Structure formats: C-alpha cells, structure tokens
Amino acid sequence: MFEGKVAIVTGSARGIGRATAERLVEGGARVVIADVDADAAERASAELDGETAVWSGDLTADRAAQELVDTAIESWGALDIVVNNAGYTLDGPIHKLNNADFQAMLDIHTIAPFRVLRAAAPHLREPAKRERQEGREVFRKVVNIASIAAYGNAGQANYSAAKAGVIGLTKTLAREWGAFKICVNAVAFGLIDTRLTQTNSEDSTIEVADRIAPVGIPEAARAKITELVPLGRAGTPTEAAGGVAFLCSPWSDYVTGQVLNVGGGIAMGMTA
C-alpha cells in the first residue's frame, strides 16, 4: 500500500508512533523514525523489518524541524507522508498551571507540527506542481495527531488548547494544499494504552528536553474514563495506528480537512 513512499513519523520510538511506523514499513514505506530518545529511536529502527532512518532531538528547538526534514531528503530524496505525533502531557487545573507548562504544550503539540510542515512544504508542493503540468494526480498525506481533549477536558487547559490549535492548523492546510493533492487530516484519540495514560506513580516520568515530566493519570480517573467508552476498554497502539494508516493510504485520497475520532465511541467531541 505504501510502496515507494517516504514518511516521517515523529515520536515514533514507542507507543502510537512506533505502531504507526510499523504499519507504514509493513506497507513498503521508507520511514524516518524521529524521537527525543535517541537510544529508543535506534532500537525501533533496528527492530522494524524495513528501510528506516533515524533522527533524534528536541522538536521544539529552532533548527530541529528543518534537520528532521533534511534527514528524509538526504536519505531518499523525497517526502510523501508526514505524521506529527510527538507529544506529552503536563496536566493540572488552570489556576495551578504556570506559564512554562502552558507554553510547553503549545510548543510541542502546535508549534512543532507547524514548523515541520513549513519545512516539508517545498518537498510536498513542488513535485505536485510538476505532476499537475504532466496531467498526473499523485496524493501526499499529512496526519496531525490531536485528541478528544481538544474539545475540552478538565485538568488539561494547556494540552486541550494545543490540540485544538493543531486541528485549526490541519483544516487551514487542507484548504491551502488541496490544489497540490496533499490531503491534510487529523486523528483525535481517546483513551489509548500508552505511557501517557498508564496509572501514574512516583516512577511515572519521561525525560523531555531539559525537564523530567510526570506522565500517567490517577487510577480512579482512568477507571472513570474507561466507563465512558462504549467498547468498554482502552484502545491499543496498534488499533490507534490503524486510523493514522488509513489517512496515509490511497483509501483516503478523497478525504481532507477532517478529524477522525478514534476513541472506541467515547462521546466527548463526537458532535464537534
């Protein structure tokens, strides 16, 4: 399905990003594994049965997005698919959120995807101009990872605002890039079993840039969210990656500017 395609997947050393990279590689794509954790990215690359390259760094750094895109171009000379998946959470009620924690969520979930897509733009748009002159339609795909929290979630004002921002970015680029046959969509995940949604403890942390960030949610909160899922359980990373793969595939060539809710039927955001 993805034979001959070159893809970038951010945050792809673990979890949903790793499962997405696996789906793309299995379909024949060549994939840049991009992650802040260099060791985990190298392991993922070695374990995937296909052609991969590795980029590691802090996506919020000034030159990071350009360096990431350059890795794909220097490795394979083209770019067809971009999946903006990297992210983490810094939860808390708004009266306890500091400026740095609010800005950090905007930086990784909204500004980093903007910078990656801006850097990718010439490699997505210019080939399309030539193909249009030749009378050919070749579709390229962008998938931005949002969340049902974008529709509002108590305790996540920073994360919700950032994910709502990426939905706005998605819909705008779908209008700007439609003429180039670049389909731009988002996936809004519900409760998916990853490090971010595990039951938290004192050891539930990840290292991001220059900070140690707590991850996970209280056991009671997780149980309450699970009760809202009509399918009765959290989704797996592989199930989550199925929605992303669909939007990367030829099956979605006439789909753009959409937000696909992948949450086992959870009601939050379903009518937005």
Radius of gyration, in angstroms, nearest whole number: 18 Å
Order of the strands making up the biggest sheet: 3-2-1-4-5-6-9
Q: Main β-sheet: number of strands, strand sense, barrel status? A: 7 strands, parallel
Instruction: Give me the strand/helix succession.
Output: EHEHEHEHEHEEEHHE
Proportion of residues in helical segments: 40-55%
Named CATH architecture: 3-Layer(aba) Sandwich
Distance between the termini: 31 Å
Which fold does the CATH topology refer to? Rossmann fold
What is the topological layout?
Blueprint: E1 6-10, H1 15-26, E2 30-35, H2 38-47, E3 52-56, H3 64-76, E4 81-84, H4 99-133, E5 140-147, H5 157-177, E6 182-189, E7 205-208, E8 211-214, H6 219-227, H7 237-248, E9 259-262
Parallel strand pairs: 1-2, 1-4, 2-3, 4-5, 5-6, 6-9
Antiparallel strand pairs: 7-8
Helix pairs in contact: 1-7, 3-4, 4-5
